[in-house]
Amino acid sequence: MSRTIDRKKGPAFQALEGINFIPVREVALPNGIEVSLLEAGSQDVSKIDWVFPAGAVQAGKPLLASTVGNLLLEGTATRSSAEISDTIDFYGAYLNAQTFHHNTVVTLVCLTRELPHLLPLVEDVVRNAAFDAREVDIYLNKRRQEFLLESEKVRTLAARYFGSVIFGADHPYGKQLDLSHFDTLGREELIAFHRAAYTPLGCRIVVAGQPGKDILALLTRHFGGSDWQAGNINLNGVGEGLPSPEKFHLLEKDGALQSAIRIGRPMFNNTHPDFIPLQVLNTILGGYFGSRLMTTVREEKGLTYGIGSSIVSYPKGGMWVIASEVMGEMREDATAAIFEEMQRLIDEPVSEDELEVVRNYMLGELLRQFDGPFSSSDIYRTLWEYGLDYRFYDRMVEVVKTIGPPDLQALAARYLQPGDFYTVVAGK
């Protein structure tokens, strides 16, 4: 029996009542390493993250932490880089290391049945990286060339400098890499940092998927032994940032056709009670394709191809940043348009229709973020880093559903005052 579909009507929107979080089981290995297990999914596939306190903050200087992280897979005392790569390919696995401000995360994704073959490799990689002098030279030369190429881009220059403006040039969040760091980084420094940071001290293992009933025994065998001693890395974090006394910064670049614009201010992180409500305000301003900045600066005025805003959270602070690239002769018009949209949020309440669109967008994005155990484990890992739990997202659902135009206007009046914002322009 056929039925007629009215294509003039969109599908009914079902309101989000809450998020079905994957339960987390917390255990500790014999040597004290905390393990978080998020067991879910229909496939026998596992994702394991080893989180080490081996970020730029602990390293204390640019380039050191990321170099150590990237060289983990380039050879150990018993395995060459080719042997490591061949083993990963043979088992159809993924193994990588990513370095952030406060940690380095080593990630393994593989079929669960291959864990007994691959965990010995990961153990060797994180504990016995050799930092062969030739591999170090190859990596640093490649990284130097990438740095020089990126330094020709105005958006890179603006992004780098913006951090130092917001946090201070000597703060870990604002300290900038330069060519001198390539010349002063030695193999002995890499070995010393690895020995201090890649240990059970401050390490956490996050397991997601269907890792099998033997996962704790496997992790204990390879990472829980008393022979792996804690290091001496500093876990105290960082102090307060010291923003620039100047609100406007122009970085002129010869030959540039475009200007990269960064406008923002220091903020708090996601533990602050206003952080979630401000996410709604930011989404309206520039947090999605239908935002005011996209509509006004891109669509109506034609000043840029792309523009967006975000509130960036770090364990010890944060920042609100608006980013765009425009033709050099349009940068003043674009900057003025950005501040006009900020002022409009202060002066005029958001309409209920606009707010409803933003609510639906944000709730849909929340559901997408929790789509499966692997993405859920990434979210959980971030919550753990900030000392939060799933209640953060319960509160987010509630705030998004209940916040009103007066609340948003009050937030705008408090946090969008033009005098609190810094502007960095790089290019023409």
Describe the protein.
This protein has 428 residues and is of the alpha+beta class. The protein folds into 2 domains: 199 residues, Cytochrome Bc1 Complex, Chain A, domain 1 (2-Layer Sandwich); 180 residues, Metalloenzyme, LuxS/M16 peptidase-like (Cytochrome Bc1 Complex, Chain A, domain 1, 2-Layer Sandwich), CATH 3.30.830. The chain has a 6-stranded mixed sheet with strand order 1-2-6-3-5-4, with helices on both faces. β1 and β2 form a beta hairpin. The protein is globular and about 65 Å long. The relative contact order is 0.16.
What key phrases describe this protein's structure?
six-stranded mixed β-sheet, Cytochrome Bc1 Complex, Chain A, domain 1, 2 domains, single chain, 11 strands, five-stranded mixed β-sheet, 428 residues, globular
Please work out how many helical segments DSSP would assign: 16
At the fold tier of CATH, the topology name of the largest domain is Cytochrome Bc1 Complex, Chain A, domain 1
The CATH architecture of the largest domain can be named as 2-Layer Sandwich
Q: Based on helices, strands and strand pairing, what is the structural class?
A: alpha+beta
Helix content: 40-55%
Quaternary state, please? single chain
Spatial order of the strands in the main sheet? 1-2-6-3-5-4
Shape: globular
Query: How does the major sheet shape up?
Result: 6 strands, mixed
Overall radius of gyration: 24 Å
Secondary-structure element order, N to C: EEEHHHEEHHHHHEHEEHHEEHHHHHE
Termini Cα gap: 66 Å
Average pLDDT over all residues = 93
Per DSSP E runs of 2 or more residues, the count of β-strands stands at: 11
Beta-strand percentage range: 15-25%
Pick out the low-confidence regions.
Answer: none
Count of all domains: 2
